[in-house]
Specification:
14% strand; alpha/beta; two-stranded antiparallel sheet; 29% helix
Length: 215
């Protein structure tokens, strides 16, 4: 059984914004339209703008060991490859943030702009990509940067959950899960239990996800 931990609300708490380097990826009318279509076709949400109200933070690793290469990949509006994902939508994957090995935080999209990074949860989730992989585990500097960034996001938005990408399917069967195709799933291992355990400890998170989702 996987146990996750929810967030104690920080509304009304002032949290300093950590240093963030702006590296916004391409956002044009085509990307906006593909994102609106994704919201409708994949999440069943009819929208006139590709925006979200952030309630979940999903932590990832890239498996690409370069900030520049990661940003270059995300900068494409349409998926350049990955046929399994292309069947669901031609919209490219992306995230709101990328964290380098040295802990530098890069912002690729505004926090409230839609990004495709986690099946079933994109409509309400902020994605944080970390440069790393199974072979190159995330660093202490990345742990500190994720902690500072998420504390800031928790103070700014009604964040209720912080999860690792490998844990996203725990939301299936709940009201949070919005994916129109029950067979559209991928298997993920990032960023791993070790990193998430350390991150939760630093965030002072409490309670297990199963109980919180059943409330």
């Amino acid at each position: 059984m996987i146990f996750l931990f929810g967030v104690m609300p920080l509304s009304g708490v002032t949290q300093e914004r950590p240093p963030i380097v702006q590296r916004l990826i391409k956002w044009d009318n085509h990307r906006e339209q593909l994102s609106i279509e994704y919201l409708q076709q994949r999440h069943g949400i009819i929208a006139t703008a590709a925006t979200i109200i952030p309630k979940i933070v999903v932590v990832h690793w890239t498996a690409v060991m370069s900030v520049e290469k990661t940003i270059d990949v995300f900068n494409f509006v349409e998926l350049p490859a990955r046929p399994h994902l292309k069947k669901a939508s031609s919209l490219n994957v992306s995230s709101q943030f990328v964290v380098g090995r040295d802990g530098t935080i890069f912002q690729l999209l505004p926090e409230t702009t839609f990004a495709r990074h986690t099946i079933g949860l994109n409509y309400c989730a902020i994605g944080i990509e970390n440069i790393g992989s199974a072979r190159y585990p995330l660093t202490e500097a990345q742990l500190e940067a994720n902690t500072a960034l998420i504390k800031y996001l928790m103070a700014e938005y009604p964040i209720e959950f912080v999860i690792g990408h490998h844990e996203y399917q725990t939301f299936r069967g709940t009201n949070w899960w919005k994916e129109t195709d029950p067979n559209y799933l991928t298997s993920k291992i990032d960023p791993g239990e070790a990193f998430m355990s350390q991150l939760r400890l630093k965030l002072g998170m409490q309670g297990d996800l199963t109980q919180r989702l059943n409330k």
